[in-house]
Amino acid sequence: MKSLHLERALYRKKEQTGQMEFINFHMKFGGELNPRNRWVQLAQLIPWDEYEEEYASKFPSRRGNEAKPFRMALGALLIKEMKNLPDEELVEDIKENPYYQYLLGLESFQDTAPFEASSLVHFRKRITPEMLKEINEKIVKRQLEKEAEDCDDDSSDSGSSGGNNHKGQLLVDATCTPADIRFPTDLSLLNEAREKTEEIIDYLHLPYVGIEEKPRTYREKARKAFLSVSRNRRPRVNLIRKGIRKQLQYLRRNLAYIEAMGERDGSFSLTGRMYRNLLVVNEVYRQQDLMYRENIRSVPSRIVSISQPHVRPIVRGKINTPVEFGAKVSVSRIEGYAFLETLGWEPYNESTKLKEHVEDYRRRFGYYPQSILADKIYRTRENLRYCKDLGIRLAGPPLGRPPKDQEVYRAMLKESRRDEIDRIPIEGVFGVAKRKYTLDRVRTKLAETSETTIALVILGLNLKKILRDLFAFLRWLFGTYRFRLILG
């Protein structure tokens, strides 16, 4: 379905190249845009033209409706994530805000929406996380080069005393970005799977209505059996197992009916959504039946949502939320800027990714970090040996027993405490991304669109920091200018 949509979309590149001049934006009701507005300044930071060709390559067809340009697609997604707006509300705000329209690349203000809310789904599919990570790195690299040029001497570089091959600090940590799903239980998941099979049976029986009797699904009895357990405030374990056993029996019968009806017709006439649900339901039944028979609580690649089968349980070990359901991401913070290092739906041990993070640091900047500030889980023997061979200090106390010399021990504790304080900013990245942006609950449904959303938030964090530093500099410059005027 996705490839068919892209083939029928026509992409026509605008004749105008380069950054649109600010003075060319026409306001039909008079007046001018403020050149110091944050959205105007943000439009100057993103290299739109450099990714226009890559975006246009996703539209190989010369037919169909004209696709929206790359600037409009990325600009709309950035506004949505930075303002934490629903898709429908974003479209309404774009109709009312000329600064939003300037960021999207429109040449004049218009009171009609340039696209529908459903177009944002296609934008998220076409702008991949890899493209966003590349844009993020390019913007940050340019900003760091600009900051280095503005600096009078090289002493301001963090950690530059470590020599030419080691500079700066690498802060790394991992977290889970919860998906917008109902809290899963085995019983509720089986009940939903049973309802999906009943829908499929009804659909397959439509051509034979009045000709033959529809297979009996006992849906009313199955629903009552589910409610008799789910409505208990504290159901006992044996009651839950009994409810799961009944739902498995109903589900097994329905799947057998669907298989027989498919063999009779020769081929399935299901819609794409129903066929996808059938594949997911079969896997859910296999996993749940295995856990029930073996009396175990987990299986590899466990499905916790039929509508989002890519979501996995991530054990976090926190008091309030020991398990979260979503993607696991590893993020690094370098010179105040965030980078999305690893994104995966399957659980992984973040300590195994440390070497990749260090090599990515060297690829970006041309040298290794002088020190790495990370959680205790990263301090494995293999990682300590790797960092020692490269001359990198991995923060934290050494493994083994503490030294007997109290002075050495106190100095070690003091250094560890200082490292913990210096590591706080990486926790702040997650806090801001989840409280102010959308990573507290990723509401996109597909795996690819959810990955794009996560990468967009990281890019938005860095753009917001650049704008904040820019306006802080302008306030300082304006204040200095006023002070000189007062002094005469």
Structure explained in plain terms:
By secondary structure, the protein is an alpha/beta fold. The protein is 52% helix and 8% strand. The chain is built from 17 helices and six strands. Strands 1, 2, 3, 4, 5 and 6 form a six-stranded mixed β-sheet that branches. α9 packs parallel to α11 and α10 runs antiparallel to α11. The radius of gyration is 28 Å and the shape is flat. The termini are far apart.
Q: First CA to last CA: what distance? A: 70 Å
Average pLDDT rating: 86
Helix content percent band: 40-55%
Regions with pLDDT < 50 over 5+ consecutive residues? 1-7, 154-163
Treating each run of at least 4 consecutive H or I residues as one helix, how many helices?
17
* Strand composition percent: 5-15%
Output the structural class: alpha/beta
Radius of gyration: 28 Å
Helix/strand order, N-terminal first:
HHHHHHHHEHHHHEEEHEHEHHH
Question: What does the main sheet amount to?
Answer: 6 strands, mixed
Number of strands: 6
Provide tags for this entry:
single chain, 488 residues, alpha/beta, 17 helices, 8% strand, disordered N terminus
In short:
This protein has 488 residues and is an alpha/beta fold. Helix content is 52%, strand content 8%. Strands 1, 2, 3, 4, 5 and 6 form a 6-stranded mixed β-sheet that branches.
